[in-house]
Amino acid sequence: MPPALKRSHTLRSLLPFIWEFRGRTLLALIFLVIAKIATVLIPVALKHLVDDLNPVVHHTALVLPVALLIGYGLLRFASTLFGELRDLVFEFAALRAVRRIALRVFRHLHDLDLAFHLERQTGGLSRDIERGTRGISFVLSFMLFNILPTLLEIGLVLGIFLWNFSAWFALIIIVSVVCYIAFSILVTEWRLQHMRRMNELDSKANTRAVDSLLNYETVKYFTNEDFEAHRYDNEMASWEQEALKTQYSLSTLNSGQGLIIALGVIAMMLLAGYEVVHGRMTLGDFVMVNAYIVQLFMPLNFLGFVYREMKRSIVDMERMFALLDRNTQVADKPGAPTLKVSQGEIRFENLRFGYGKDREILHGVSFAVPAGSKVAVVGPSGAGKSTLARLLFRFYDASGGRILVDGQDIRDVTRDSLRRNIGIVPQDTVLFNDTIYYNIAYGRPDANRSDIEQAAAMANLKQFIEVLPQGYETLVGERGLKLSGGEKQRVAIARAILKNPPILVFDEATSSLDSNAEQAILVAMRELAEHRTSLVIAHRLSTIVDADEIVVLDQGAVAERGTHRELLRIGGLYAQLWTLQQREAEEKQKKAAEQPTPPAFALNG
């Protein structure tokens, strides 16, 4: 899309949010007009004051023009009062519009599919949203209260000059304004390329910083602090160069605008002085012209700043609105009903899926998870096990086949109703940077404290929480880094217990735990899965020997099916994996037994 059309589209996107508060906007515009009329009349009142107090004009004893003095003061007060009323009335609409747009972007980001979030750069994304919302506030306020009032004031002043004085005054104003606006537009367009590049580099540097801080431990493991600092400094150096070019162009713009204003002022004052000398204007007229020059060119100078900043704000808004224009690849069908779960049976029918057109992961996978049963899916790495969970949650849609829950195709029901009926204990549990209580309650935010404590007890968390100084109010740190892997998994199980869904998915929930932690987690998982439909994606085969059925995937297809005993009896891929894992477990036990027992030391008092 061409830049001009893109800017027009961005500004049009704001109209629905302002139209919602059209009453307030109209009232603000009325106050604006009244304030500007009062402002424009101030120099007229000043002219009459000067003429009435000028002894050269009257040649008699002067009388104090009390009414004019009071009127002059009241005009100044009215200009300020109605300007403040304008801001007060419209500020609510502007702030509410920013809030609505920010909320809409936030909701839209959560609505976008997993593919977008796997590719996103969190630091740059947050910076784009921050600048975009700030830009909206600026554009709404200054477009309505600076650009429109300045143009209105120019029009009123032109009318006064044409009515009272020579047309040359109006011509000088028109030429000055046109030259000023033309110069501002040309130079600002030139500046925009540097501003866009500067914003991109700023987002890139912020992304680099956030990514490095999120991977703090990895940086420390490999002592790469200097490497990370060097990469960040390189990004900031590129930003610095573009920021300097932006500043140079700004100085050029300011100097050119100042020159145009200075030439306009000189021409106006020379003409006014000439008219006074030749008796065609009074001293009060000269003062009025001078007042109008100050009154007109000061906001015109500010108008240049507003125009520059508006262009910058629109550039910032473009990136944020581009997020809203991005459509999700996984969406509800129009009028989609909610999922109705009576038993909880899951069926995968001839499922085909690939993360790219040339990389198909699943090749016609078919199996069922009967209501209330526990079915495990195992296989080598890359066989497509975790992909099944992502498809079940509709993070992606299958390219072929279908998934049924109690006979309902999950693509025909709403995503929210589908996900409300499924609980998950993932392999990598990522917690919010909040308290243990908050993270457990996230499974059902409206749950009361007794339900949350009961869920923690069922997940074998109660004893751990009781020994903590702050108990449930203990902060877990960013991504839950203050907790061990086993503790995080217990929080995930407590969260799933609190959600109380009819269908459960365990996605390699114990693969990263040691044997002791694994056994504790397995006990909690079995209690959680009781009387529920459970799909267990497992790496360690010892954790799923009690499954009602085990489905073995190999290269994206079902290779074997059966119970643990049946699959061992067949002697196929499952049996090979079982033998390999048992051998690895025996070797670990043997090495542990060969370790010398550390000597006991007595503490002498």
Tell me what the structure shows:
- There is one protein chain.
- This protein is α/β, with parallel strands linked by helices.
- The protein contains 19 helices and 10 strands.
- The chain has helices spanning 3-19, 22-52, 55-58, 66-111, 114-119, 122-164, 167-214, 216-221, 225-277, 283-325, 385-392, 415-420, 436-441, 449-458, 462-466, 485-499, 515-529, 564-570, 573-594; strands at residues 346-356, 359-369, 374-378, 400-405, 408-409, 422-425, 503-507, 533-537, 549-554, 557-562.
- The protein is elongated and about 120 Å long.
How do the strands of the widest beta sheet line up side by side? 6-7-8-3-9-10
Q: Give the count of structural domains.
A: 3
User: What structural category characterises the helix and strand content?
Assistant: alpha/beta
The helix tally amounts to: 19
Helix content: 55-70%
CATH class of the largest domain: Mainly Alpha
Question: How much of the polypeptide forms β-strand, as a percent range?
Answer: 5-15%
The poorly predicted ranges are: 57-61, 600-605
- Total strands: the figure is 10
How does CATH name the architecture of the largest domain?
Up-down Bundle
Question: What does the average pLDDT come to?
Answer: 80
* Gyration radius over CA: 36 Å
Overall shape: it is elongated
What is the succession of H and E elements? Answer: HHHHHHHHHHEEEHEEHEHHHHEHEEEHH
> By CATH's scheme, which homologous superfamily of the largest domain applies?
ABC transporter type 1, transmembrane domain
Separation of the first and last Cα atoms: 82 Å
Major β-sheet annotation: 6 strands, mixed
What do we call the CATH topology of the largest domain?
ABC transporter transmembrane region fold
